[in-house]
Amino acid sequence: MKASQFLISTLKEAPADAEIVSHKLMMRAGMIKRLGAGIYNYMPMGLRVIRKVEAIIREEMVRAGAVELLMPVVQPAELWQETGRFDKMGPELLRVKDRHGRDFVIQPTSEEVITDIARQELRSYKQLPKNLFHIQTKFRDERRPRFGLMRGREFTMKDAYSFDRDAEAAGKSYDAMFAAYCRIFDRLGLEYRAVAADTGAIGGDRSHEFQVIADTGEDAIVYCPTSSYAANIELAEALAPEAGRQAATQALALTPTPGKSTCADVAALLGLPLTQTVKSLVLATDTRDEQGNVVASQVWLLLVRGDHDLNEVKAGKVEGLKEGFRFASTGEIEAHFGCKPGYLGPIGLQGVKVVADRTVAAMSDFVCGANQVDHHYTGANWGRDLPEPDLVADIRNVVAGERSPDGQGVLAIQRGIEVGHVFYLGKKYSEAMNATFLAEDGKPRPFEMGCYGIGVTRLLGAAIEQGHDERGIVWPVSMAPFEAVICPIGMDRSEAVRDAAQQLYAALQAAGVDVLLDDRGERPGAMFADWELVGVPVRVVLGDRGLKDGVAEVQGRRDAAATAVPVGELVAQVKARLQG
Amino acid sequence: MKASQFLISTLKEAPADAEIVSHKLMMRAGMIKRLGAGIYNYMPMGLRVIRKVEAIIREEMVRAGAVELLMPVVQPAELWQETGRFDKMGPELLRVKDRHGRDFVIQPTSEEVITDIARQELRSYKQLPKNLFHIQTKFRDERRPRFGLMRGREFTMKDAYSFDRDAEAAGKSYDAMFAAYCRIFDRLGLEYRAVAADTGAIGGDRSHEFQVIADTGEDAIVYCPTSSYAANIELAEALAPEAGRQAATQALALTPTPGKSTCADVAALLGLPLTQTVKSLVLATDTRDEQGNVVASQVWLLLVRGDHDLNEVKAGKVEGLKEGFRFASTGEIEAHFGCKPGYLGPIGLQGVKVVADRTVAAMSDFVCGANQVDHHYTGANWGRDLPEPDLVADIRNVVAGERSPDGQGVLAIQRGIEVGHVFYLGKKYSEAMNATFLAEDGKPRPFEMGCYGIGVTRLLGAAIEQGHDERGIVWPVSMAPFEAVICPIGMDRSEAVRDAAQQLYAALQAAGVDVLLDDRGERPGAMFADWELVGVPVRVVLGDRGLKDGVAEVQGRRDAAATAVPVGELVAQVKARLQG
User: Fold this and answer.
1) Which of A73, A113, A163 to mutate to test the interface with B (most CBs of B within 10 A)?
2) Which among A47, A50, A72 is the nearest to B39, CB-wise?
3) What is the pTM (predicted TM-score) of this model?
4) Do B7 and A121 touch (CB under 8 A)?
5) Which phi and psi (to 5°) does residue A172 adopt?
6) What is the tens place of the pLDDT at every residue in B47-101?
7) Which of A5, A35, A74 sits opposite B106 (nearest CB)?
8) Which domains does chain A have, with CATH numbers?
9) Do A45 and A481 meet the contact criterion of CB atoms below 8 Å apart?
10) Cβ of A47 under 8 Å from any chain B Cβ?
11) Residues of chain A with pLDDT under 70
């Protein structure tokens, strides 16, 4: 490609609404262009990256035995009503009526349509296993779209769906996709981690997120550097302290803590470690009649150590909270605790269910709110000052440095950006949509399904969050819009430079290098800045001075300086750097 | 690809709603699957064809210097309001509101968005010419979607837009796209014709449709076999008769024609040729005030020869009808003609504007309605029995056999399916959206634009309408989902067949042939029927009997019988047939 024939539009400044580095750099590099909130034109430079990502995904999906099809963007509501998602999903599902007033959705995902296809096309166990995928435009009407392609409204995803005869076969399909995803992210050249993820209401442990490691990532991922343990923060298990609960050494004392309503403030005031304090969180659950009216409510007190954070996903797995919970209202709190929030605690309660985190259950001589404004208790002890908790459960986020659940070391925490997800669906959709095949015994049986997504456009943002410096994007070679760029200096006035540039351009093309010749006639500084911003992995600079000595300058995107390379060795050098 | 790993779902019968052969065959061959009215899943077999078509289009667009980007499916209404199309377009424009109540459209085309990109990105004449294209999913909410991919609601199109500094440069861009389209349709292996098309309100003669020739086509295309003249029926000019008007030989006579209200019936009753009769069509135009209320109407009588058809596009170019016309109401007809339709004619009218087709203006001694029920005039003559017409114009469709407008022979008419369109837009969009660039003189000037569409999914239907027989689809090699299929007979019980099939499969793949190995274990008859239905160009049948003699059977999709070919020559034979 010659630059003069391409559309290059780099910007010195990122627009004001670009908050994160990948968004800023993609805008500045002219890869995307905003059309509306969360809706972007994929400009030629960005589309090249998307196509490279898609090609790698497609190759590895096919290698893993998946078959590509394409399901529509605009989907009739009927199928979404079969699974109940047409009503259940919130306003992020973009609904539209056609000219006849019929309901449709702009697809955010395609479980319904693929299950509909399977129930018609896959009739016998002999056709199984089958894995069908597509790469398609999707739409999710985010309340607050932001971060460019990272949380856009219109985006491109690959989604695959596997259909199997039984859970064992479904496990094999899952494993095959897991392996394919590893190959995909390896080939994309990204540093990533596959982490076990929560499976929500469906249950089972077959869900993994593929997280691109980046300090700016929204997700916390937990792993053990000395073992294979890795999970997202929602799932990573926090163990009880090994030592167990120590004997009480202090007496319970009502202690004035005027104006100190947080554990940190109380600990500071009392000169105690934060780990000696207990944090109280008040939830409520509702019982409803058949009309959906609330007929009774139960108030819950959840206790975590002062330096720990409640994990709402884990809380949602506690017996009694599984069907859904909410944070209690101020009215409910005052009715049950006789006190406003900030000074709540577990001592002297009536009719409140108390759930203690495993760590809290093992504490002694702890500090907690006294259910009295401006007061806390110190020296509180289970069994003596208050009854043992109704339930003890893992309801908090793990923290770095604690024991790994597999017993193989201590946990570390990284930030990550979720770019892929493999999920064992089981029979959720096949049963809802009566999608069955004839098993070997001649009887209809619902498919065991899995779904497997990769956010194609999101991957661009994630790769940039991982790979950038002060000059711009640092793409992995396999994702770069161009692998190499030739920057001729003074091409318009020097025949030698022009000839050398054209020859090198032809030679690199012949060698299979995806090369761009910058024939725009820009000054060297402007050229270099553009291609560093765009993130082309290898740059070759040709100028009269070097050519007199038979050399050109080669510089990798991460290199601090250029290397002089004899003209005859340029192709080999460029190829070597791309492979290295 | 091995059949066992693919998704093959052929049907014996087409669904009842499939009216035309391409729709029936695509459904039967399992290429598409209906999801809703005019909305289809592209199944793996069909998607392979789409991808091959897209690849050829993409290659030729890039070869012609166009640059690919991707514009969103969901587009903000604001841009569509700038050009007025948000309000002007009918219900075929699918409109949707997002969660905040803002208006969006599901794009049927992208003039607005590309013009918005151009006015931001293309700032100087130095960046011109530029041609930007994308291949994207589109939606048009057809009132009555039908014919499968031919008139669907969701479909895939390539659209390109050129931006030029002046009309001359725009003409060159147009020519380059015209040439690229010829290469594309040549490579697709289709019989097609590029025909001049009407440019509507924009004017100029720079519009061509690319029509795939098929007897079942919706469009009539006119061409001269002995010259390069070709136009669609809306545009093809009908010349006046060479001989001119003959002198009157008959007297005007009021003739009873009871119950005979059509020209054909009247001619039969009177024993006259249909070419002696004149057909009367009554139109009306309205004058409106600023509020849009009709303040006056004018009634028009359009006359074409009894065997000719009115061409409404041509009528719309007549002075006085350009601003829009409608067919007159029965009330208006009775008020102006004193007679109900069926016996209307041009004699004795007041306040009606009469437009005669060129042929009618040259007639003498003609038959026309008498404005009296059950009566016609015979022997009518211009100037003597009625005034010369107010206007003489070309307002009819040409018919086969008449003189070509270029004077180089006589016209022929074929049926065609429009699959591509190149169109010189001029400044329509750039002026409406104030899209300018800085010209060499430093002044802003609106872009000269062209737009260039190809209906990717429609092409599949058109190719099948052109290429099919009683057994199924006959694809051109470049569009076929697979180029060749290996059908091993008794693969499960014969090691020789199995080995030969695997070897041939590997050898054909190594030779670059897109080959499918049918390893499903189906009976020969079922295998053959499937691949004839799907339309694979070359079939190789391997069986024990032939292999004993060292031969296999090769049969092209159009061949009446198979040819025995030595096993060692199979690859060369298959390749030769694919190239032939």
Assistant:
1) A73
2) A72
3) 0.92
4) yes
5) -65, -40
6) 999 999 999 999 999 999 999 999 999 999 999 999 999 999 999 999 999 999 9
7) A74
8) 3-188+425-464 (3.30.930.10), 253-393 (3.90.960.10), 484-579 (3.40.50.800)
9) yes
10) yes
11) 200-205
